[in-house]
């Protein structure tokens, strides 16, 4: 079974015992800043390993509870798979708890556990009252029906049972997508002496490995993962759902900030205009007005912008989903389905949240027609959902498409008969547009190679596809090459691939000198000088010698006897014909020397070349013609 990775979060009101509970579960104190110790509150996100075995690894984020640190709280919650909602037995549900619940709902967190802490401070009867209070508050939230755990972090009462429940719940949960392109929203940037710049975050999706080339978005900085750590231990790879720190090359700390995103693919979209579906909180204190300034929290980014409605000019109360647009002051990296939170910058409050319908929004007219168009876009036709999945995954099998599109087998099969889709290897689907894109890329690479290496037959196939394998599965690349050969766009000779119309040739600037070399070689017949002397006297530089020699051999213009000597192709073939016509089915070295009038210096390499070319076979002291 493939190992799975999860990150859970502690959420709740300030001083309700999140950090103490994290410490009791993990034996790690996540309050690491001096200011946090002094004020006894969490300011930054704290992380700790909770559990690991052969099947599963679980990390914990301790999320700040204080209202001033809501940005860090959102950054932490955005990457988690399960939330432990911490409520102190002696206080019950508090304002921050309610705000955290709203945020969790808008971010689409679906799994939760309720931990009632500090139970040693109250009697059992009071705990039952707290439970009733919590149940009432949690109606219509993600935590409705979630299990309760009674714990005391100091005495460790209930800690073991809570840990077991978390593990059991996650064992039954699907992990994040580890097969898509790698994406890590950065929530911490720092430097390590002697190592350089390090970023930390929760892997949203995909996998990253040591040495991999990556990009920092939205600014497009190219970096490399020099080293990967998971909970202070070096790792070769990090997977979706894992908390990880990555030491990056080619970048300084000053070039990065929380909110940047580390990615492996160029297919993620950078944008400032986003079509969205939002819901607002139930108890809005102030009107949300058309084009009002908002603060968008998405991934770990916090960006100012304005909200644009197409069917209203304000919101006071609204139970349903509103289709609208966010126009931002800075670029963000996002894709369809990403969750976000909206807050009012002043006075500060959570307005609502939602998900991205289309990261590449346009300017639309005010009116119901735009809302209807957004509704169609939101739902997405089955074909559009399949195409979106293939644009991201490049090549997917039927079961993978079912998972990614939420369509059943029958609906998928019906759509996949469309001409936009291609089935190859009898089991994998891709898009014609992807095939065309890869084909164009290979064409351009071969064309460039032929211009600079005109004497070579082509590019080694493995070398040609090596760079592309970072973006596309090898099975798809192999199919595109074979398809290109079948359609006479490419051709292959042994392991070398070239353009169909390409013919290897000597560069124009060296044609005359090459002709002179061949003339000299032919003129000297069977009693040649060292091959190197011919190159030198023809004025051909050493840097060109290897490639030219290989080209002349491939074209059978010369035949190399050994490392020192070579014959002109016509001279060699003439000597073979003469020897064959003047000997029987077999001959000895002496006979050959007499026929060709050659000394031992040339004779032995010549006969060994006959053997190597499969023209003769040595049997004791004789050669037998084949």
Automatic annotation (TrEMBL):
<dbReference type="GO" id="GO:0003723">
    <property type="term" value="F:RNA binding"/>
</dbReference>
<dbReference type="GO" id="GO:0001514">
    <property type="term" value="P:selenocysteine incorporation"/>
</dbReference>
<dbReference type="GO" id="GO:0005737">
    <property type="term" value="C:cytoplasm"/>
</dbReference>
<protein>
    <recommendedName>
        <fullName>Selenocysteine-specific elongation factor</fullName>
    </recommendedName>
</protein>
<dbReference type="GO" id="GO:0003746">
    <property type="term" value="F:translation elongation factor activity"/>
</dbReference>
<dbReference type="InterPro" id="IPR015190">
    <property type="entry name" value="Elong_fac_SelB-wing-hlx_typ-2"/>
</dbReference>
<keyword id="KW-0963">Cytoplasm</keyword>
<dbReference type="InterPro" id="IPR015191">
    <property type="entry name" value="SelB_WHD4"/>
</dbReference>
<comment type="function">
    <text>Translation factor necessary for the incorporation of selenocysteine into proteins. It probably replaces EF-Tu for the insertion of selenocysteine directed by the UGA codon. SelB binds GTP and GDP.</text>
</comment>
<dbReference type="InterPro" id="IPR000795">
    <property type="entry name" value="T_Tr_GTP-bd_dom"/>
</dbReference>
<keyword id="KW-0547">Nucleotide-binding</keyword>
<dbReference type="InterPro" id="IPR004161">
    <property type="entry name" value="EFTu-like_2"/>
</dbReference>
<keyword id="KW-0648">Protein biosynthesis</keyword>
<dbReference type="Pfam" id="PF09107">
    <property type="entry name" value="WHD_3rd_SelB"/>
</dbReference>
<keyword id="KW-0342">GTP-binding</keyword>
<feature type="domain" description="Tr-type G">
    <location>
        <begin position="3"/>
        <end position="174"/>
    </location>
</feature>
<dbReference type="Pfam" id="PF00009">
    <property type="entry name" value="GTP_EFTU"/>
</dbReference>
<dbReference type="Pfam" id="PF03144">
    <property type="entry name" value="GTP_EFTU_D2"/>
</dbReference>
<dbReference type="InterPro" id="IPR057335">
    <property type="entry name" value="Beta-barrel_SelB"/>
</dbReference>
<dbReference type="Pfam" id="PF25461">
    <property type="entry name" value="Beta-barrel_SelB"/>
</dbReference>
<dbReference type="InterPro" id="IPR027417">
    <property type="entry name" value="P-loop_NTPase"/>
</dbReference>
<dbReference type="InterPro" id="IPR036388">
    <property type="entry name" value="WH-like_DNA-bd_sf"/>
</dbReference>
<dbReference type="InterPro" id="IPR009001">
    <property type="entry name" value="Transl_elong_EF1A/Init_IF2_C"/>
</dbReference>
<dbReference type="InterPro" id="IPR050055">
    <property type="entry name" value="EF-Tu_GTPase"/>
</dbReference>
<dbReference type="GO" id="GO:0003924">
    <property type="term" value="F:GTPase activity"/>
</dbReference>
<dbReference type="InterPro" id="IPR004535">
    <property type="entry name" value="Transl_elong_SelB"/>
</dbReference>
<dbReference type="Pfam" id="PF09106">
    <property type="entry name" value="WHD_2nd_SelB"/>
</dbReference>
<dbReference type="InterPro" id="IPR036390">
    <property type="entry name" value="WH_DNA-bd_sf"/>
</dbReference>
<dbReference type="GO" id="GO:0005525">
    <property type="term" value="F:GTP binding"/>
</dbReference>
<keyword id="KW-0251">Elongation factor</keyword>
<dbReference type="InterPro" id="IPR005225">
    <property type="entry name" value="Small_GTP-bd"/>
</dbReference>
<dbReference type="InterPro" id="IPR009000">
    <property type="entry name" value="Transl_B-barrel_sf"/>
</dbReference>
């Amino acid at each position: 079974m493939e190992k799975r990775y999860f990150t859970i979060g502690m959420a709740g009101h300030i001083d309700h015992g999140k950090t103490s509970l994290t410490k009791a579960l993990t034996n790690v104190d996540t309050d690491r800043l001096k200011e946090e110790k002094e004020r006894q509150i969490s300011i930054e996100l704290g992380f700790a390993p909770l559990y690991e075995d052969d099947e599963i690894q679980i990390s914990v984020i301790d999320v700040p509870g204080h209202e001033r640190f809501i940005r860090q709280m959102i950054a932490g919650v955005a990457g988690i798979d399960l939330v432990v909602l911490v409520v102190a037995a002696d206080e019950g549900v508090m304002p921050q708890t309610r705000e955290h619940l709203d945020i969790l709902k808008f971010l689409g967190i679906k799994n939760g556990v309720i931990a009632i802490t500090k139970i040693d401070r109250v009697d059992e009867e009071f705990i039952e009252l707290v439970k009733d209070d919590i149940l009432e508050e949690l109606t219509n939230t993600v935590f409705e029906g979630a299990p309760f755990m009674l714990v005391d972090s100091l005495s460790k009462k209930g800690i073991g049972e809570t840990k077991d429940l978390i593990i059991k719940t996650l064992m039954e949960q699907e992990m994040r997508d580890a097969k898509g392109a790698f994406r890590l929203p950065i929530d911490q940037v720092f430097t390590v002496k002697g190592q350089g710049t390090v970023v930390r975050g929760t892997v949203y999706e995909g996998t990253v490995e040591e040495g991999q080339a990556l990009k920092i978005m939205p600014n497009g900085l190219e970096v490399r993962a020099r080293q990967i750590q998971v909970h202070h231990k070096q790792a070769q790879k990090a997977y979706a759902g894992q908390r990880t720190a990555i030491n990056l090359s080619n970048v300084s700390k000053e070039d990065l900030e929380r909110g940047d995103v580390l990615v492996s693919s160029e297919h993620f979209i950078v944008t400032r205009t986003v079509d969205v579906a939002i819901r607002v909180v139930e108890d809005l204190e102030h009107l949300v007005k058309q084009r009002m300034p908002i603060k968008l929290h998405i991934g770990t980014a916090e960006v100012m912008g304005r909200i644009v409605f197409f069917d209203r000019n304000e919101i006071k109360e609204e139970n349903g989903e509103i289709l609208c647009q966010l126009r931002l002051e800075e670029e963000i990296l996002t894709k369809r389905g990403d969750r976000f939170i909206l807050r009012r910058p002043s006075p500060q409050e959570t307005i609502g949240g939602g998900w991205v319908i289309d990261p590449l929004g346009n300017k639309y007219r005010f009116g119901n027609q735009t809302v209807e168009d957004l509704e169609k876009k939101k739902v997405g036709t089955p074909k559009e959902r399949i195409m979106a999945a293939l644009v991201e995954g490049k090549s997917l099998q039927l079961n993978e498409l079912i998972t990614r599109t939420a369509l059943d087998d029958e609906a998928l099969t019906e759509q996949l008969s469309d001409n936009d889709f291609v089935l190859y290897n009898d089991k994998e689907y891709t898009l014609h547009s992807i095939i065309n894109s890869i084909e164009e890329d290979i064409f351009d690479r071969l064309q460039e190679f032929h211009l600079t290496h005109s004497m070579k037959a082509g590019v080694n196939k493995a070398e040609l596809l090596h760079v592309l394998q970072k973006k596309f599965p090898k099975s798809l690349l192999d199919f595109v090459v074979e398809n290109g050969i079948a359609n006479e766009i490419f051709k292959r000779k042994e392991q070398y691939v070239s353009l169909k119309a390409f013919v290897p040739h000597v560069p124009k600037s060296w044609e005359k000198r090459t002709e002179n070399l061949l003339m000299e070689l032919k003129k000297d017949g069977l009693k040649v000088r060292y091959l190197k002397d011919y190159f030198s006297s023809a004025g051909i530089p050493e840097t060109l010698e290897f490639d030219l020699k290989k080209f002349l051999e491939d074209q059978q213009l010369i035949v190399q006897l050994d490392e020192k000597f070579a014959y002109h192709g016509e001279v060699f073939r003439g000597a073979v014909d003469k020897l064959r016509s003047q000997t029987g089915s077999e001959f000895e070295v002496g006979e050959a020397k007499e026929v060709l009038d050659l000394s031992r210096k040339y004779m032995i390499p010549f006969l060994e070349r006959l053997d190597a070319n499969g023209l003769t076979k040595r049997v004791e002291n004789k050669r037998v013609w084949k």
